[in-house]
Amino acid sequence: MAVARMKKLTVFCHRSLRDRVVATLERLQAMQILDARAALDGSIGNGLDLSAEESRLSARLDEVAYVIRYLQSSCPQQRGLLAGLLSFKDELTPEKLETARQDTTYRRVYQTCFGDEVRLNEIRARRQVLESRIQLLHPWTGLTMPIETVDDTSCTRVVALAVPMNEVDEFRSGTASFCHVSEASRDERTAWLLVICLLSDVDRLQEAISEANARAVQFGDLEGRPRDIVAAATAELAELTDQEAEIRARAMQIATDRLHLMAVHDHLANELQRVQLQSQFACTDQVDMILGWVKQRSVDHLTRELSDLGEVEVFVDDPGPDDNVPIELENHKLIKPFEVVTNLYGYPRYNEVDPTPLLAPFFFVFFGLALSDAGYGILLLVLGWLAIKKLGIPVGGQKLVKLLMLGGLSSLVLGAVTGSWFGDLFRLLPGFLSGLAAAASRITIVDPVSEPITVLLIALALGVIQVWTGILIKLVINLQAPKTRLKGIEQIGWLALIPGVILLGVGVGSELLAQILTYGGGGAVVLAGAINQPSWVLKPFSGLYNLYGIINYVGDILSYSRLLALGLATAVIGVVVNQIAQLVGAVPLIGAVLALAMIVGGHIFNLLVNTLGSFVHSGRLQFVEFFTKFFEGGGRPFRPFRWEGTYFTLTEPAATTDSSQAAQRAAN
Amino acid sequence: MAAISLGASLAAVSLSVLGVLISLQMGTGLALAILGAGMAVMVAGIGSSVGVGIAGEAAAGVTAEDPEKFGRLILLQALPGTQGFYGLIGGFLVMNRLGFFTGDIPTLTVEQGAQFFFACLPIAIAGIVSGIHQGRVSAAGIGLTAKRPEESGKALIMSAMVETYAVLGLLATLLLVNGIPL
User: Fold this and answer.
1) ipTM metric
2) What is residue B106's DSSP assignment?
3) Any CB–CB contact under 8 A between A345 and chain B?
């Protein structure tokens, strides 16, 4: 129920054992590696020239990543809808990993794919040229002369024109006196004309051209009859299409090995990680020093495994006061799902209290109160159980599902108590099931729709309890360190003042007790404020000003009124869904089907929207009203050195021997 | 600024309606009280909608760059939603006082109806203004979380500070509504 205790480990090994030590650490997933050289203030460096190895692996990794990207763009992977949405990593068995390790062909695959992609780009560019050429010459296929003859002679201008259809007649009549015009072809918008005139009449022709909004067609360097050029281009296009198909087929063939290539990618990425890790070792001629954090409970096992390798010595130290110790939370398995809430805010520091078991009961109750529907609670339990069993969610994601299941349990209990089962569905059920409605109303204690003020007071009371608990926790924390003991006076003050004021306001119980609490608590708060003020003149004012904090507490407590609002929202939407279903059910013939669809769809919508709202607001209450009383946070998580893949997780930790590594390196 | 003018124009419209009705002496006390309760919910709801919307736009941008941060961002986005809840509570208080939940609704004079109407204004106006501004602080906090994810707690606190004034508005409404003599 706490932050896991950590130890600082220093491992010394003979440099010949370096690879085996690294492999063991990777397999055990127990140690977060620190920079050993920095710890020695740089007096002993690394001396390893890893940059060559690093760049080699980096380049290989880029090659495999390129191939995977290329395959993804030419033959996209078909994934199931759910798998695509949730993007889980597939699992990699040790056999497949070994196959990936032994792979030596991927470099050739890379070269093939690289060449193919270059060729594809060339084809694309060439295709564009050919298509525009065909488009250019298409109107002129009727021309029997080679296209390069459409050019000026010594006395005449010969020009090909594209003339808009609505100007053609005018153009022809305008130029008839000094030009010879013949038409090559026309379509709905343009007429394609071949015009010849004497060089002396070029200006008149130019005028006529611009008046008709015509443009001259340029044929560039093309040679040969238009019909022949078009035929040649079409033939080349067909050939290009064939080549493209061939490349695509080759890509599909390579894609059958896609998973294997992904495994190679992950394998190379981890090889690179291992090499980069070694740059954090401090090394002399013969000895390597490795520094890192290990959980206290893993220390013995790790030490034994490392010592078994040979000349390895392990020294264990406690964390120093200035160390930024990484955090891992350890909690009972019923509390563990609530770590999802803590992680949203951040991790505690090493010497702080783990807030997870503290917030767990409050979050549990608030979620139930905000969702407060027994039917939805059952749905959450069932769906959560199915999700874990059938969907194969990795362990990290399971915490959230389990949290929702616990929330569902709370919602079931509180929903039963408030008489909310899928809204008021039981009221609508046909005769033989109406017994359910009677049974449900027997266990109903309070109905929030008819008695909202009662439920509001319950929510506010829960708020008082949580705020009071937060102050209490702060008091306990303050009392533990001698320096902060005096600050405990303020907490004691509030702990007495808040209940005192409430008792006075409500007028219940002994008035004397309420007065003692109020004035005593108030006095303690004033005293605490005065103690903190250095100037004697200002002390009474600071003290009284400290009482202003009551506004903050009032605000905090009022914030809990949202639990009523959320619970009501769920209930009311449920009732409305049922009412619509009832209306729709009156439709003849298909009424029953429509009503059923409405009920299923409407309640699922209500479940989704209000589960999200309940989760977010229950969490928000913890962070803003509870954590602010005692929790600082800012810790960073414990990330031990382990095999990590982009595409895969390992089914069992990888066990390697350095012989396979050496073979791999020789082959590459 | 647009929000304040929106709230002010809503108040102005309501007041002019009030004036007309008083002069017509149509005994619309209950209608006025309901208008007040409705305004508390509506106007504070506008504040929350705009605030949460502004924060949501910022959150979408950050999530596009780094989907891992989504959980923290949703929390920051939800913070300006408080004003809507407080408006609803304010409305509830009026409904409770008017006996809507027990079915025992008294006849109200126009003056009494107007009293309920005015009593709802604190949470309505404080709700809309603080909701919108809290949305802007949340959006800034989302930017803070994007650059320094471990400090999202501080962003949370900054945003929650704006809520204080909505609380004061709700308190004022609560005291006023409970103090109206029926």
Assistant:
1) 0.71
2) P
3) yes
